[in-house]
Phytanoyl-CoA 2-hydroxylase interacting protein
Amino acid sequence: VHKLHCCLNLKTATSLTQLFFKNTSLILLYMDTPLSTPCNIQICEVTCDSFRIMWDMTPEDTEKATHFFIDLSRKESRDHNRFKHRDVPTKLVAKAVPLPMAVRGHWFLSPRTEYCVAVQTAVRQPDGDYQVSEWSQVVEFCTGDYAMEHLQQLLDKANGSAGRLLKFSVFYRNQHPEYFDYVRECGGLMRPALKDSSGSHGSPINGKLQGVFFSCNTEFDTGLPPNDSPYGPLRFQIPAGQLLNPNICLYFADFYCMYTAYHYVVLVLAPVGSEGDTFCRTRLPMLDLASNPFLTYIAPERPEEEPLYCHASDVILEILFTEPVHLDRGTVEQISGHHQLMSLTTANAKKDPSCKVCNISVGR
């Protein structure tokens, strides 16, 4: 009986050993099977600083993949002389998760910027190396504008730089004589133009909202508009109440600087119910006309009193009025000061990405 028992144990041990080596061979064969190339890359839920990515994988790859490699780089500009350098592609190694996979915070993604992305699947080996698939095809996508929450962050920063409120009585717009000659030839109407790309790259109004730009800043000592302007020697002035009154909605659109100590705040004035108002209502923070740190309208308490108009003293306001304005509503006069260099204008000016005062963490 004892000999029979030993014989059975030997046979069992031998069978188990054979089974072990058979299973080990199957596992090694499974691990050595090449990973298929990811295909049908899809990008979704794109914001100004994040996106989700997914692709097709075989069931076998889905089961054994331990990591994903993602290669993201900014799409090269067609104008190769515009920048002195190109962005270096950045690779992310992430543990395999159910798709779609969220990509956020791994790069400083910029708003409204075109990117290229490709993916690999990988299996981490016991020695620390990776078995990887071929790179997928490259897919291009573009990040979005600032969302309302990002503009609120920008607004909070601008609040701290506004300074005290100063009285003013007119909005004004400086241009060259040729501009006003053209306006008169077209019936005297200053028509809205598309907002350029100046300021924060992610501002929702850039390249999308039309308007006529005005200023309202005044000199500390005189309370009047400055005598100088980089935009032209002729100035159109219009009473403040023509553009700022209870029938107007006020929106915050941007806060930026151009490598200078002073900052700009962009505001939008849109008549209630207008196309401009409809555009801004879901995209920009609305400001209370009577209580905000930038531009206020205080209604008179008595019939014989005049409304009170005030502007922020420590920032330069750029006011975009979304409707046409006729020259007959104001006056055009020559400014008494010197016409400054056009290089001092903010036309298509780029925001200083290093400024800690006016930048937020989601991009510039």
About this structure: The helical segments are 2-32, 59-64, 148-159, 177-185, 240-243, 275-281.
